[in-house]
Amino acid sequence: MEPFGVVGIVLGSFTSLVLGGLLFAAYKLGILYQLFHKTDTKSSKHGGDIVAEVLHAHGVKYIFTLVGGHISPILVACEKMGIRIVDTRHEATAVFAADAVARLSGTVGVAAVTAGPGLTNTVTAVKNAQMAESPLLLIGGAAGTLLQGRGALQDIDQMSLFKPLCKFCTSIRTVREIVPTVKKALAIAQSGTPGPVFIEFPIDTLYPFHLVSKEFVVKNPPKGLMGRIVSWYLHNHLMNLFAGAWEPRDMSPLPVHIPQATDNQIQKCLELVSRAKKPVIVLGSQATLPPTPVDNIRKALEDLGIPCFLGGMCRGLLGKDSPIHIRQNRRDALKEADVVVLAGTVCDFRLSYGRTLSRRSKIIAVNRDKTQLLKNSDMFWKPTIAIQGDAGSFLVRLSEGLKGHRCPEEWPQSLKAGDATKEAANKAKAEEKTEYHLNPLKALHCVDELMAEDSVIVADGGDFVGSAAYIMKPRGPLCWLDPGAFGTLGVGGGFALGAKLCRPESEVCLGSFDSFSVTWIQSLLVHLKP
């Protein structure tokens, strides 16, 4: 009897494996899901309608695009929902415009482009958004779910292309996945360190059932068992594609996770700053990110009275002529400071990899991204306190904790005196005669004098950004746009487009220099109909 017992065990195990395999196959093929969720073959709705509903529920006002057939249902549906479709003449411009909207509005910028070359054209702009930490959703078309990898029109491995550039990449496989996937992507784009996310939409997930079903009809199918298997597989795939597609789903936004400094870390910072005689705050673009309103950050800085150097999107945060905004001689000030607060500022090439910081200074570094927080700290500098958290809310809490305490006034006054000396020297250079071309510094001074108080400055190019940063004076918070750490040339058109849509009543001043010859190209006021 013993051998028969062993055989029974083996047969039982084999049966369990077979059943398990069948259940797994049924799950992967959507057969189990279809038992409980039916496919409405009569509905005229399509996946584009669902995308539009989710974006509308998340407050998206603009989609930038270069129209293509793969994504047309999304664009048509969004326009019906009241989301403005802005068509550009290059996909990179569409992403640059979405980037600008993200930075100026505090929401996720959205760009939609067609498959293949439409997506490859966005690579530089997406990388720029990644390095600038802009929350951006890139929607891309793709070949049908069953045709990918089979030589369809404009079919490439798009996921491999964007995984190194985006915080989150995914491909929609059924219509029912659209709502949870788009919600997840939008939350990830804004959480932690903001950045771009990418969703690939195969064309058969966007068009209505009656059109997609025509593509699943096999002309002259193989005869016999193989023909029946192929026909069944295609029919099942089609039904699973639309199963449960139009069932009610919650469209509301998911929670956004933003790291914050702990109370213990704040207390240690309060002790350091309260004892400082010559403190300095260096602000980077990250300090302007939601959820803390920029006006609250501005008030916090003014209450502290600590000299501030403003970089990136923070330019203009303190207005045109703030007594604590120091624009010149940053290297000298950092060497002299006894406490330095790096609020969203990174020790990369812009701070000479940390070499501009004095080893005698107490350094408080605050950044949402751990890698950026500690960049080059193993070589040229060491943080006294390193906080992985939101820079804007940190500054507000620091100000609240130091209520009634202000930086000694002699310190910002001495730095302001250095500002005046350097700016006088810059004006003298601007008056120098040139043999053939405009003096670019003179042109910058002229534009700065003529700009309206509500102007948004778009700085495009390498040398232009460097020159404009210490000559032109943004009049208020979120009135400055430049490429960011990637230094991409050609962002100007898209940035100006996005800026004008966000600020329809404001003038948008777009300026650019050729990076090599430093020749003045343009400074113009961009007027776009709101």
Automatic annotation (TrEMBL):
Name by which UniProt lists this protein: 2-hydroxyacyl-CoA lyase 2
Sequence ranges assigned to domain Thiamine pyrophosphate enzyme TPP-binding in this UniProt record: 460-509
Originating gene: ILVBL
Keyword entries, A-Z: Endoplasmic reticulum, Fatty acid metabolism, Lipid metabolism, Lyase, Magnesium, Membrane, Metal-binding, Thiamine pyrophosphate, Transmembrane, Transmembrane helix
TM regions (residue ranges): 6-27
Chief site of localization: endoplasmic reticulum
Domain Thiamine pyrophosphate enzyme central per the UniProt entry, residue ranges: 266-398
SUPFAM superfamilies the record matches: DHS-like NAD/FAD-binding domain, Thiamin diphosphate-binding fold (THDP-binding)
Location(s), subcellular: Endoplasmic reticulum membrane
Keyword Disulfide bond listed: no
Cofactor(s) this protein requires: thiamine diphosphate; Mg(2+)
Domain Thiamine pyrophosphate enzyme N-terminal TPP-binding intervals: 46-161
Catalytic activity: 2-hydroxyoctadecanoyl-CoA = heptadecanal + formyl-CoA; (2R)-hydroxyhexadecanoyl-CoA = pentadecanal + formyl-CoA
GO molecular function, one term: flavin adenine dinucleotide binding
Keyword Magnesium attached: yes
Entry similarity comment: Belongs to the TPP enzyme family.
GO cellular component: acetolactate synthase complex; endoplasmic reticulum membrane
Pfam family, one: TPP_enzyme_N
Topology of the protein relative to the lipid bilayer: Single-pass membrane protein
GO terms, biological process: fatty acid metabolic process; isoleucine biosynthetic process; L-valine biosynthetic process
